[in-house]
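Quick look at the format.
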Amino acid sequence: QVHLEESGGGSVQAGGSLRLSCAAPVSSPRGMCIGWFRQAPGEKRKGVAAIYNGNSRTYYADSVKDRFTISQSSTQNRVYLAMNGLKPEDSGMYFCATDPEARFRNGGFCVLTENSYEDWGQGTQVTVHS
């Protein structure tokens, strides 16, 4: 089983920026979503952002709209999460994963629910200091 690999986390002051990267060994098949999730200590993973690789449509949690941007490489084997204006509540372990069933949702769209995704990576830590 091949899993994704996250990188780019770090420790920053509130208001700072980070750029996370999610890498796959090969390009993801079309018709899938790639999502970013955040898990704080003692909490479940919460959906942050996702991108549908069939049309590059993006989806965001309300808490990160206008601050985070998700994008994918031209070869579709890497997905990025640009994080600006970071807040302490953004802190946590960030994971990426894939949803292979996105194409079956009314023509294709992403959800931000953990149980829709698979092939989880090991995560990358983001810490935002107030």
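Next, a different chain entirely:
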Amino acid sequence: QALLEESGGGVAQAGDSLTLACTASGLPSIKWMGWFRQPSGKEREFVASIWWDGDSTYYGDSVQGRFTISGDNDKKTVSLQMNVLKSEDTAIYYCAATAMMYGNIRAPSSYAYWGRGTQVTVSS
């Protein structure tokens, strides 16, 4: 069951920008929301996360400086602005959320809720 819904995926050219959005439904207690991506045949990779209470954001090394996560805590929505897209950004992008963070914020296992994903394809 998907409690998070992603949108905004599509096809882009290298160097272009794309914005993803995620909305959480029925999860008023979540404090962390983030994005992971999974290229075909590869493991899920941390992209970015936002901590509402601390008003803090975190980024994976591969997207630092290019991607920006933002959101609305009241609405429980997050956006991912992706700039200077590269072919290696091609993946299914998943929105994730959790109420408590007990482990590594970069680990998929630390997030309790997931969306079904949205495909982002970047052509070089």
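The chain is about 0% helix and 50% strand.

See the schema section for token definitions.
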